[in-house]
Design a protein that fits this description.
Elements: H1 5-15, H2 19-28, H3 33-51, E1 58-65, E2 71-79, H4 82-85, H5 88-100, H6 121-132, E3 136-145, E4 150-156, E5 165-166, E6 168-175, H7 183-200, H8 212-228, H9 233-251, E7 257-258, E8 261-265, H10 266-277, E9 282-290
Helix pairs in contact: 1-2, 1-3, 2-3, 3-6, 5-6, 8-9
Amino acid sequence: MAVSADLIKQLRLKTSAGFTDCKKALDETNGDLSAAEEYLRKKGLMDAAKKSSRTTADGLVSCYVSDDLKHASIVEINSETDFVAKNEKFQSFVRDVTEIALTVDQENVLNAPFKTSGHSVKDELSFLISIIGENIQFKRSQNFSVDKGVIGTYTHTAVVPGSKMGKIGVIVCLENNDTNFDKENARNFGKKLAMHIAASNPKFLSTEDVPEDVLNKEKEIAKEQAISMGKPADVSEKIAEGRVKRFYEEVVMLNQLYFEDSKLTVSQVLANFNKENNTQFKIKKFARYMLGGN
């Protein structure tokens, strides 16, 4: 049967696929819109398989926080080029997946149902690849919850002003001893801490979180450097201790100098906030995703 231009237009509006692909799909399915859409989705799976080996060095990091500030998620989805990262359909997909990741662990995200269709995230991703024409990969995600606190977030180099999608995304969980606090004030403080994390890139929250093997390696490097400079063993030991202190200041969040006031550590800034607001907030957990990072 001859496929009308109006039918092709309907399929394009429904799927966002190109004119040629829509016409071919309708030709193959005798003008059946539902069957044509399914045809395009299967084509998307094939296209995704063909493009799966192509490097995805760009994309977006996205954050989502619930209205009550108690639940949050962060995801990274990669594309081949920055051009796709600026694509509204790609951004919409990333935004939807970030919301899905709020209640689904990383290993289950791709199999979770996509909220605007009866298909899985994986199938929706394949369909998006067929429309955009680039390899797109879901890389990672995490979700977070607090009981009596708030979750702060910050997105660096947001693709759209005010959006929570960009090149660096941060989630920081603040837990209080009770629910009697100024939520908006706490949210703003959480955002400031998230901005610090984005700028300073801590690897650990506290000194207790630093693995023993990582600490021993830092000590060993410092000792070997001191010995190679002819320092005696007792001096080498003191140099190693000094190196550990500097190491903590570099990679442990609570020991880092605060990005807005280098005279104070993050731990001191937190203590000052609690004193000023009669609260007992503690930093429970944080995550920093940088596009293309580990």
